[in-house]
Amino acid sequence: MLLSSFLPVLSLLFLSGCLAAQSYYQILGVKRDASEGEIKKAYRKLSKKYHPDINPDEAAHEKFIEVSKAYEVLSDHELKGVYDRGGEEGLKQHEARKAGGGGNPHDLFSRFFGGGHGGGGGEQRGPGLLTNLEVDLADMYAGRTIEFQVPRKIVCTHCHGSGAHSDADIHECGHCNGQGMVIQRHQVFPGMVTNVQMQCQHCGGRGKRIARQCPKCSGQKVIDTLNTLAVHIPAGAPEGFEEVFHGEADESTEWEAGDVVVRVHSRKVEGQGGWGRKDAGIVGRVTLSVAEALLGFKRTLTHLDGRSVVIERKGTTQPGEVEVIEGEGMPSYHDIPQGDMYIEYSVVLPAEVSETTRQKLLEVFPDTVNASAHDEL
């Protein structure tokens, strides 16, 4: 009777354990047999959606922590195995045995997307890649996610890094009997000989030889591809803003892939018009006619986000004079306050004017430019 009264409770506990064992997969929206690449892709998509720098909603922040914890477990082969066998309780026991902590989900996002080249000890890291990305200043003003491609070597999808046409084409080296090393006798001096272990020259120390090379990589084990990445540029990002893509550099069978570091700069505007940048400030030039410089003017400028900014002045405006419009520069970014807008004025002389008039105008506006040098927003 006592046992039968406990059966519903035991069944509920067992069911809860099964559901918990599935929850991390549900959070990332992947199946239990998902590959490492599928898990990574799901994490990247969800973490960008819920990261506090992108989505300030409190519920999104909680979701981001869940997504980060799920990825931290499922992306680690050892932790994933522990979780599949014992669920979250198994993870707690595992962490207790190792006397380790859970880690910060924000640090995980930073390592994955843009914060450091770290990585625990163990497998050798391959070379990283630094690439510069030029974008419109408007993209750095308003914030934008931009996709781009970088060249990348990946482990051959045909031979999976063996370099052979098939598994049947991989044979044990007959010179070293699969050891990769051979013993050679060397005479130290007359009457004394020693044995020296050396790398097998026939197989290069691999212990294997390939009868037929892979037709896709020609035995190189890796192939050239273009890797598509997406960098999120936050509003007001400074020049040289960096985002790090962990493990997205060249692959190899001999090392763990290094990181791709993307450094973002605003595109230089050549020729006439356009806004420039100086730190957190936005810089532009407005060219006035002589009449506007003498009598005043009213202009409507188009801001980087498409808004209209009206500037109006009465009286004389000298060439080279700079007007400051507070709070109309780049948006604030972390500890960088919002910048200002700087309008530099220049005056253009009319093309058809007598030399006497020109000289008089130059006395009033000594830094004027010719009519052909018309450069304005």
Describe the structure.
- There is one protein chain.
- This protein has 377 residues and is an alpha+beta fold.
- Helices cover 30% and strands 28% of the residues.
- It is built from eight helices and 15 strands.
- It has a four-stranded mixed β-sheet with strand order 10-11-15-14. A three-stranded mixed β-sheet has the order 1-9-8.
- Strand 12 and strand 13 form a beta hairpin.
- The longest helix has 27 residues.
- The N and C termini lie far apart (88 Å).
- The N terminus and C terminus are likely disordered.
- GO terms for molecular function: ATP binding; Hsp70 protein binding; unfolded protein binding; zinc ion binding.
- It comes from Papiliotrema laurentii (Cryptococcus laurentii).
Q: Which oligomeric form is depicted?
A: single chain
Poorly predicted segments: 1-22, 100-104, 110-122, 371-375
The major beta sheet can be summarized as: 4 strands, mixed
Overall pLDDT level: 78
Order of helices and strands: HHHHHEHEEEEEEEEEEHEEEEH
Question: Nearest-angstrom radius of gyration?
Answer: 33 Å
E-strand count: 15
Which term fits the overall shape? elongated
Q: Kindly, what is the distance between the CA atoms of the first and last residues, rounded to a whole number of angstroms?
A: 88 Å
Question: Based on helices, strands and strand pairing, what is the structural class?
Answer: alpha+beta
The proportion of residues forming helix, as a percent range, comes to 25-40%
Strand arrangement across the biggest beta sheet: 10-11-15-14
Taken as a percent bin, the fraction of beta residues is: 25-35%
Number of helices, counting only DSSP H or I runs of 4 residues or more: 8
Protein name: Chaperone regulator
GO biological process, one term: protein folding
Pfam family, one: DnaJ_C
Organism: Papiliotrema laurentii (Cryptococcus laurentii)
